[in-house]
């Protein structure tokens, strides 16, 4: 049975999970792994959303893989869930990558899909490096190696569940719901204009990498500096992948190390 994974990623964690799932599901079900043409297909949500045509998800297993943002899911993923037709898939899974706490993010993903007409069969999460730089310092060296190892073990277990078509429906408590209501409410209220707090400092050399890695084309280079156009997904790819560490979020990110998933190449994160 064919598996189709729709993914959204900023710094590569969710792409790493998507690729890992594709490999493992192909092994476990005896199918060949071919990211574009074979039985396990990976499709960037940002690319699907650039296209105005309706989205009809295919038969077989269909998955959504994306990061947790403010205890919810990225706005573009909500918009994708609203836009796509999920009538054909036999089995639907959602895997969230996260860094610290998800509160009720899994419930948000489950409920949004249920409201769009088809409840998912399986919702789970995988802990990875936290790329929310204003609050966290991403791990490196041995700490990152050990986090990647535990993420790999979680990925293995999730792939086995999906191959066995297991069911997993989230149910968070009242406290988690309250946190999500507050945090995710803020993201939904401010929407795509949260980029107003990004700026490039004097170390910017106008190289244009930020423009290329923005998954939604929200950046242009004007007078050798990035300009943000308020269609932001808040993925932090521009900030983390700038080779000069020139992009800052308010004053909270200066001198902090940047993050990219160690097993994903920057070329894989360009205009997906
Ligand atoms: C704007 C923003 C908000 C985030 N909010 C949360 C959060 O509420 N809980 C959490 O555990 N991680 C949070 N994170 C961390 C990411 O979910 C995590 O690092 C994820 O694996 C990044 O995936 P990516 O590399 O595919 O972009 C946030 C990251 C960003 C950029
Ligand atoms: S990637 Fe960094 S250095 Fe290059 S244009 Fe953007 S902000 Fe400037
Ligand atoms: S502007 Fe930066 S944070 Fe916003 S979507 Fe583009 S890369 Fe992500």
TrEMBL record:
The scientific name of the source species is: Methanoplanus limicola DSM 2279
- Tell me if Nucleotide-binding is a UniProt keyword of this record: no
Would you say which domain of life the source belongs to? Archaea
- Write one Pfam family the protein is assigned to: Fer4_9
Start and end residues of each 4Fe-4S ferredoxin-type domain: 196-224, 225-252
> Mind listing the UniProt keywords for this protein, alphabetically?
4Fe-4S, Iron, Iron-sulfur, Metal-binding
Read off the PROSITE patterns from this record. 4FE4S_FER_1, 4FE4S_FER_2
Q: What is the name of this protein?
A: 4Fe-4S ferredoxin iron-sulfur binding domain-containing protein
GO MF annotations for this entry?
Answer: 4 iron, 4 sulfur cluster binding; metal ion binding; oxidoreductase activity
Looking up PANTHER family in the UniProt record yields: PHOTOSYSTEM I IRON-SULFUR CENTER, PHOTOSYSTEM I IRON-SULFUR CENTER-RELATED
